[in-house]
Write a structure and sequence with these properties.
The complex is a heterotrimer. Chain A is of the alpha/beta class. Chain A has helices at about 40-60, 60-75, 80-85, 90-105, 110-115, 145-160, 175-185, 200-210, 225-230, 250; strands at about 25-30, 35, 115, 125-130, 135-140, 160-165, 190-195, 215, 235-240, 255-265. In chain A, strand 3 (about 115) and strand 4 form a beta hairpin. In chain A, helix 3 crosses helix 4 (about 90-105). Chain C is an alpha/beta fold. Chain C has an eight-stranded parallel beta barrel, surrounded by seven helices. The longest helix of chain C has 18 residues, at about 225-240. The chains are: A alpha/beta, B alpha/beta, C alpha/beta.
Chain lengths: ~270, ~500, ~300
């Protein structure tokens, strides 16, 4: 009885809910696989679809966003074995799932914790609400490959932002697996875009992109000050996220605060 | 100069059958309450340090020289930062919050007690009408200290589970449009959180900050907790680049803000930026029109339009375009432009020759690009820097006057047909500081407020400020909030 | 450009084609605007001029059940020469009384230019049949009144029967003949500025020569924001149609300072053209003496005592 020849996976990008190859046609070798090596133009395309997808994601009810992210946890849970192969093991996967669930629960609680009404001295009703900053670029840390990405991805996501993330350069397979989980959860296409490739090549493109509102430099290496300088061109919010942290203030880093006034009169 | 009387007020009264027309007699605020020294040094470590180099600060209302003010050198800045560091380490940061609070309460009270003096000086040095410095700047400045005083011993409640600590030495660079108020916005939360401060007032308006040093003396604030270094942009740059500053807070132009962000790249210093704006003020056809007109006027002519959140782009629903513009132009003719120290003045002097030139240049571009310009008849004083309140109609979204921040009394009027269109045009800017919405329909207010990309949305009002209300921008209008609980965060670090 | 008036239910009336839209009034912004105008600083000559104007536009008023011909005559005398010691003080615009006192006032005023205004239409409540109100007006005109100060039917207005309010004003106007008609809205009973604006436009549409804030019988009466609200409606009518409607602030104005503030609001809202007795009146009784005291203080530099001014 001849052994069945398995079908091998092609490791592609995740942009706009689809899995394209890099427009450049390039790949690089990581973890023994040929992985798509995203180009400047892939970054451009990803930011464009992220921008288009963001308002719809932000407009979804907080309850809905919470459920969608919980659904993502379900999808990861269903693939625990596969994920465990691509990171430090089952423990990291389980912590990642729990982290997704933890953040998913924040979706409909943020405005009450981060906002509120303000007692201004006059006949006005005044309140402050958090809102997504828009399109967020994330440079995922190299380690831990799954938990690190989840830790940096969920805070901007739960707040209603769309994300363009560059996966850990040397450990990208967990990110690609996560893209597949995302694609089968109910996260709308374009809300999360995952690129694989060379950080040094892609980071400056994201840092200088005028349509990116915030950048998380957690996984940046090399000339970080230069990335910060580039970020100033459109006054980006620059976040130096930690690879393993769980806090609502991580979410707040990717939120704007809007204050609304209205007179109180008859 | 007895107030630049405008419009019908200039006509003799005979034709309306009254004995003499009714021009309000000039009602100048007395300058006697203010004593300006001939020469000011730097206020460092509680002492006045003699200046090595000075420049002249003037009154924009008549170009009268007011005082010689120190041009801060990098050495001055270094001394000020060192004094702030010493004061931080020698007790201020470890002082119980309840004690810090009492200093801030003292400062608030002193500002209230000396408000007339500060108001006159503010109008004299900056050109804003006395009624604004008296009724807006001073009460709000005192209120800010009062508000943040109360937070000083309650930070754990503001940030539960976060163990807040002061950041250290804060370098604060403030603009010339609300000199004392911006000082209060910066200094009050910084001190409440246990930081010490090096403040750099704007080049053209240093005098109220220098007078504030006297309030600090009266409040017996420990030396070095607040240091004031005057000078131009070079002084500010030295402060930004000073190695021993832990945090920079800047309010000013987007251009300079970006430069500061660049210079701080890689330093790990905390930064908050409150930058420019090009706010949309959107009037729907069901709005309370007469009040909307007041809001529009307040939105763009308040403080000569030297307001980062000024409602400089007016979007009018086409169905009420004509009556609204008619009302607006009529109202403009009743604005009194003139001596900032006259209590009846509505629009004062432009802050500086450079700013006047910038306004003139942009207005000329508007005319050249084809917009229709309206300026009420207006007699301007001969000396000083003045610009007539201006309305541009027939403005296209692409004109420079609809895109660039003018920072002057110049309004661009554009039209829209549907809420979607208003929203799209309003958000079509790199800025995102503020916006206004005028409609009687509650659901539409909330719909607009939710979608406008701006840090402050005024619905059926404009240009309201309060210490409890967070203020700050989206996009290129900056980051970080000033005011409210949220205004504490930039001055704290957390052990999470 | 003319606009189709946006009318609420019950408002579909034979209005002139070009009335302004009714629209809405924001209470907070209106009150802030009025408060900011109240802060205008009026000094020296401008103040004296304003005080003189306040006198020239005053409807010197007594509206008491206890009014007698003697009391009415005393008021008329005061109207003629408010301050006998100062010939520069002008006479007031009108004397305002109940209908029965009109002849007594007429006798005292003789052939002076001072008008006689009389309240009518079941003043102050207006809760009478229309026929009675019209008869009231005809009788008052016959008694010699030059101006009729009518009240609107607030009961009808507040229950949404705008047409009844309108029809009554039309009928009263007709009964007035060539006499001047002032329509009192009694704004203190209307509840909102939206209603004040609506009632102002309704009264103007029905033919009012003047709109007037209040009867003086309830408080609040002629507050600055109410005055501003009504003046803005008058301005809108003028803008749309060119028709000049007068305004009378009445009730609660007791001090010179308040009177000057009212004049400032008129000046800033409608311009100096409205600052004449033909288009502006201040309904007042105790106000006049306060103005006289202020004028004498301006003249002499000394603060005054009520003992030196007649109580009439």
């Amino acid at each position: 009885m001849s052994e069945r020849l398995p079908v091998k996976k092609t490791y592609k990008l995740f942009v706009g809910g689809a899995f394209p190859r890099s427009e450049s046609g390039r790949t690089y070798d990581a973890e023994g696989q040929n992985v798509a090596r995203a180009s400047r133009k892939d970054v451009r395309d990803a930011v464009r679809v992220a921008r288009d997808a963001q308002p719809g994601w932000a407009k979804a009810t907080a309850y809905n966003r919470g459920q969608v992210l919980y659904r993502l946890a379900e999808m990861v849970e269903a693939r625990v074995a596969e994920f465990a192969e691509l990171c430090s093991g089952r423990d990291e996967v389980e912590r990642s799932i729990d982290r997704i669930v933890w953040y998913a629960g924040w979706a409909d609680k943020l405005p009450q914790v981060l906002g509120g009404s303000n007692p201004v001295a006059g006949p006005y009703f005044n309140f402050t609400v958090p809102e997504p900053t828009g399109v967020v670029a994330v440079l995922a840390p190299e380690e831990p490959p799954l938990l690190g990405l989840v830790t940096r991805l969920l805070p901007p996501l739960v707040g209603g932002n769309a994300v363009v993330a560059v996966a850990a350069e040397s450990r990208p397979l967990a990110a690609i697996e996560l893209a597949e989980a995302l694609a089968t959860s109910d996260v709308p296409g374009g809300v999360v875009n995952l690129l694989t490739g060379n950080h040094a090549e892609l980071a400056p493109v994201l840092a200088s992109h005028m349509d990116v509102n915030a950048i998380d430099l957690c996984g940046a290496d090399g000339d970080v000050p230069e990335l910060e300088r580039l970020a100033a061109d459109n006054v980006k919010r620059v976040v130096h996220g930690r690879a393993d942290v769980e806090s609502p203030w991580e979410i707040a880093s990717f939120l704007e605060l809007k204050t609304v006034w209205h007179p109180i009169g008859q | 100069m007895g107030g630049g009387f405008v419009g019908e007020l200039d006509k003799p009264g005979a034709e309306v059958g009254v004995p003499g027309d009714w021009t309000y007699a000039s009602a100048p605020e007395s300058r006697d309450v203010v004593h300006i020294r001939e020469r000011y040094g730097q206020f460092i470590g509680g002492e006045w340090l003699e200046a090595t180099e000075t420049y002249e600060t003037i009154s924009p209302r008549d170009e009268e020289p007011l005082a010689a003010v120190a041009q801060g050198t990098p050495e001055d800045v270094g001394r000020a930062v060192a004094a702030a560091r010493t004061a931080y380490a020698d007790g201020w940061s470890s002082l119980p919050g309840s004690e810090r609070a009492k200093y801030l309460f003292r400062i608030a009270r002193l500002l209230q007690e000396r408000s007339r003096e500060f108001a006159v000086l503010e109008s004299l040095n900056g050109g804003k009408p006395i009624k604004e410095s008296r009724d807006v700047d001073l009460p709000l400045a005192a209120a800010h200290f009062f508000y943040y005083a109360g937070w000083a011993d309650k930070l754990e409640y503001a940030f539960p589970n976060r163990r807040p600590h002061p950041v250290g030495v804060a370098g604060q660079i403030i603009p010339w449009n609300f000199p004392l108020l911006m000082l209060a916005w910066k200094v009050a939360p910084a001190l409440a959180c246990g930081n010490t401060v090096v403040l750099k007032p704007a080049e053209t308006t240093p005098l109220t900050a220098l007078l504030f040093a006297d309030v600090l003396r009266q409040a017996e604030l420990p030396p070095g907790v607040v240091n004031i270094v005057t000078g131009d942009g070079r002084t500010g740059a030295a402060l930004v680049e000073s190695g021993d500053v832990d945090k920079i807070a800047f309010t000013g132009s987007t251009e300079v803000g970006k430069e500061i962000q660049r210079r701080l790249a890689g330093t790990g210093k905390k930064l908050t930026l409150e930058l420019g704006g090009k706010a949309a003020n959107i009037v729907f056809d069901d709005a309370a029109l007469d009040q909307a007109v007041e809001g529009i006027v307040n939105g763009i002519y308040f403080n000569q339009g030297h307001v980062c959140c000024a409602g400089s782009r007016l979007f009018v629903q086409e169905s009420i375009y004509e009556p609204l513009v008619a009302k607006l132009e009529r109202r403009l003719a009743t604005l009194r432009v003139g001596d900032p120290l006259d209590k009846n003045t509505d629009v004062g002097a432009i802050n500086s020759a450079a700013q006047l030139e910038k306004i003139q240049e942009l207005v000329a571009s508007g005319v050249e690009e084809g917009a229709r310009i309206y300026q009420p008849p207006c007699v301007l004083p001969e000396k000083g820097y003045w610009f007539v309140p201006t309305v541009f109609t027939d403005v296209a979204q692409s004109y420079r006057i609809a895109q660039e921040e003018i920072f002057g009394p110049v309004l661009s009027v554009l039209t829209f047909r549907t809420p979607e269109e208003a929203l799209e045009k309003a958000n079509n800017t790199p800025y995102g500081l503020s916006a206004g919405v005028w409609t009687e329909k509650g659901s539409r207010i909330l719909w607009m407020a939710q979608r406008l990309r701006a840090g402050v949305v005024w619905a059926n009002t404009f240009n309201r400020f309060d210490p409890s209300s967070p203020f700050g921008g989206y996009k290129e209008s900056g980051f970080g909030r000033e005011g409210g609980l949220h205004g504490l965060e930039p001055y704290l670090r957390f052990d999470e | 450009m003319a606009q189709a008036p946006a009318l609420p239910a019950g408002f579909e009336l034979p209005l002139e084609a070009r009335l302004p839209r009714i629209g809405a009034v924001d209470a907070v912004a209106l009150e802030e605007r009025a408060a900011s105008l109240a802060k205008r600083s009026i000094k020296r000559e401008a103040k004296v001029w304003a005080l003189m104007l306040a006198i020239r536009t005053t409807d010197l008023t007594t509206l008491e059940g206890a009014d007698t011909p003697g009391k009415a005559a005393a008021i008329a005398s005061k109207a003629l020469r408010p301050d006998p010691s100062d010939p520069s003080v002008p006479p007031v615009a009108a004397v305002c009384v109940y209908p029965n006192l009109v002849p007594a006032v007429r006798e005292r005023l003789g052939d002076s230019d001072i008008k006689i205004a009389a309240v009518a239409t079941g003043f102050p409540s207006g809760q009478y049949p229309t026929a009675i109100k019209v008869a009231d007006v005809r009788a008052t005109v016959e008694l010699g009144a030059d101006e009729i100060d009518m009240v609107i039917d607030r009961g009808a207005f507040l229950s949404g029967r705008y047409a009844k309010v309108y029809d009554e004003i039309v009928q009263v106007k007709e009964a007035c003949g060539d006499k001047h008609l002032k329509v009192i809205l009694e704004t203190g009973e209307l509840g909102t500025y939206d209603n004040v604006r609506r009632a102002t436009l309704l009264a103007i549409a029905a033919g009012a020569d003047f709109v007037k804030t209040s009867t003086g019988k309830i408080s609040p009466a002629a507050t600055l924001p109410v005055a501003l609200c009504m003046l803005e409606a008058i301005r809108d009518v003028y803008g749309e149609t060119g028709r000049r409607v007068g305004f009378k602030a009445a009730g609660g104005i007791r001090q010179s300072k308040q009177a000057v503030q009212h004049l400032v609001v008129v000046h800033e809202t409608l311009g100096p053209e409205w600052l004449t007795p033909e288009l502006y009146r201040l309904g007042a009784s105790s106000l006049l003496n306060d103005i006289l005291m202020q004028l004498r203080k301006e003249r002499t530099g000394a603060y005054q005592s009520g003992d030196y001014f007649t109580k009439d």
